[in-house]
């Protein structure tokens, strides 16, 4: 596993000294505490702490101190209602703190979600590890010809081998120079905060990331989507598995009303109605651009 010996020792110590608590506990998430779920070649996601559960969402919505006469079925129905009608505040009552190890270029995408608290490993004070993300062969793809920010077909044969060798060689060479610059064998060396500028963005960093459930769902809706970049999507998928165990009612509602739903424009809805009435609608008569029409066709084919 990509955990360091020091991190594993910390986990072992914490697991050896469980504490009683009066706070809300999620049995599903308790099983995930401190467990490192491996992602990519050297990365991981692990739960450090959390607050709240499905019941906490309902408690906030009802502003009550207990379940009262409400049943579990009523809780699930309430959560689905809140999700369906975009009542987000009750979901903000739950929080999750994760320890994530990820490539820097993935972190730069991730940090665009600004509604979270982040503390990242500092290369000003510490020396970065010699760990780089090298894509698996099936992930080394050419540029998409229809999407400027997406991938096309996987590279094959000699071209794939050539690109893979470049990635490995450049990563190792950059780290060799990084080590040389920060000083060895009594040399004064360059300051770490300057030497780090030469490192590639596929080097791994780490951070603690704390977010409330509403904003976490927003992150997952975008990053667990099939159109998201693979390298961040696999982290989102790992977090989805964790959240499903933490707040099963809320996650099922999120799956149904966010992940598994589609958004349609007014023109798309109009075209759908016309089609249901038997009208033959074309892109020219739809009022949509060629790209919008293509997206609409994708929605219809997947429905």
CATH class category of the largest domain: Alpha Beta
Average pLDDT level? 90
How much helicity do the residues have?
Answer: 40-55%
Q: DSSP strand (E) fraction?
A: 5-15%
* Low-pLDDT residue spans: none
Structural class: alpha+beta
What's the shape? flat
Main sheet?
Answer: 5 strands, antiparallel
Strand line-up in the sheet with most strands = 1-2-3-7-4
Number of helices: 13
Query: Which value, in Å, is the CA radius of gyration?
Result: 24 Å
Count of discrete domains: 3
The CATH topology label of the largest domain is Gyrase A, domain 2
Function: Catalyzes the reductive methylation of 2'-deoxyuridine-5'-monophosphate (dUMP) to 2'-deoxythymidine-5'-monophosphate (dTMP) while utilizing 5,10-methylenetetrahydrofolate (mTHF) as the methyl donor, and NADPH and FADH(2) as the reductant.
GO molecular function: flavin adenine dinucleotide binding; NADPH binding; thymidylate synthase (FAD) activity; thymidylate synthase activity
InterPro entries: Thymidylate_synthase_ThyX, Thymidylate_synthase_ThyX_sf
Enzyme class: transferase
């Amino acid at each position: 596993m990509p955990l360091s010996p020091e991190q594993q020792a910390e986990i072992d110590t914490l697991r050896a000294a469980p504490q009683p608590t009066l706070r809300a506990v999620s049995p599903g998430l308790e099983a995930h505490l401190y467990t490192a779920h491996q992602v990519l070649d050297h990365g991981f996601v692990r739960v450090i702490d959390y607050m709240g559960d499905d019941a906490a969402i309902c408690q906030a919505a009802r502003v009550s101190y207990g379940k009262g006469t409400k049943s579990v079925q009523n809780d699930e129905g309430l959560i689905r209602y809140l999700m369906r009608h975009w009542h987000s505040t009750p979901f903000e009552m739950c929080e999750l703190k994760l320890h994530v190890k990820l490539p820097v270029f993935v972190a730069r995408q991730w940090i665009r979600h600004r509604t979270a608290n982040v503390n990242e490993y500092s290369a000003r004070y510490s020396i970065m590890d010699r760990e780089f993300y090298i894509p698996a062969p099936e992930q080394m793809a050419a540029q998409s010809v229809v999407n400027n920010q997406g991938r096309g077909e996987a590279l094959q044969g000699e071209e794939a081998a050539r690109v893979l060798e470049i990635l490995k060689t450049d990563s190792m060479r950059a780290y060799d120079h990084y080590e040389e610059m920060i000083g060895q064998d009594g040399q004064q060396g360059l300051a770490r905060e300057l030497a780090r500028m030469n490192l590639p963005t596929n080097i791994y960093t780490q951070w603690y990331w704390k977010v409330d459930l509403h904003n976490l769902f927003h992150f997952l809706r975008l990053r667990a989507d099939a159109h998201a970049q693979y390298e961040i999507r696999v982290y989102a998928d790992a977090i989805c598995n964790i959240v499903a165990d933490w707040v099963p009612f809320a996650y099922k509602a999120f799956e149904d009303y966010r992940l598994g739903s589609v958004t349609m424009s007014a023109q798309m809805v109009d075209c759908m109605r016309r089609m249901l009435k038997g009208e033959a609608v074309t892109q020219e008569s739809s009022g949509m651009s060629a790209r919008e029409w293509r997206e609409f066709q994708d929605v219809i084919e997947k429905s």
